[in-house]
């Protein structure tokens, strides 16, 4: 059995007249191997946390981070997916009102026009996910 050390501890906020709460969550990460290198399944973040020592965060910290995520991730995602839906909806209305004939699209050009949105999303969705993880 390996020697593990707790590195993250979450505590609840409490008033002065209450007793101190017990940690709700403790994450254990195994220490580095003998040569000082991090084991394969660990990443740089685990090593930084190990060097920093025990971290405590409160429920207020959780709420603050959640609000920041909601503001900077969910709101832009909502507007982006709304625009995607409106664009696709406009293309379907265009098919009903002869957009293909009016814009002189021939063959499969109209199909490629409607598919281009999904092709762009296929290319940029992994990049957006990578930016969220790195950011």
TrEMBL record:
Q: Does the keyword Transmembrane apply?
A: yes
- Show the SUPFAM superfamilies listed in the entry: MFS general substrate transporter
Q: Does the keyword Transmembrane apply?
A: yes
Q: Its topology with respect to the membrane?
A: Multi-pass membrane protein
Q: Where is this region: Disordered?
A: 1-37
Please give the chief subcellular localization of this protein: membrane
* Compartment(s): Membrane
Q: Where is the composition biased (Basic and acidic residues)?
A: 12-28
Q: What Gene3D superfamilies does the annotation carry? A: MFS general substrate transporter like domains
Keyword annotations: Membrane, Transmembrane, Transmembrane helix, Transport
Q: Which PANTHER family match?
A: PERMEASE-RELATED, TRANSPORTER, PUTATIVE (AFU_ORTHOLOGUE AFUA_1G06550)-RELATED
What name does UniProt use for this protein? Answer: Major facilitator superfamily (MFS) profile domain-containing protein
Q: What is the lineage of its organism?
A: Eukaryota, Fungi, Dikarya, Basidiomycota, Agaricomycotina
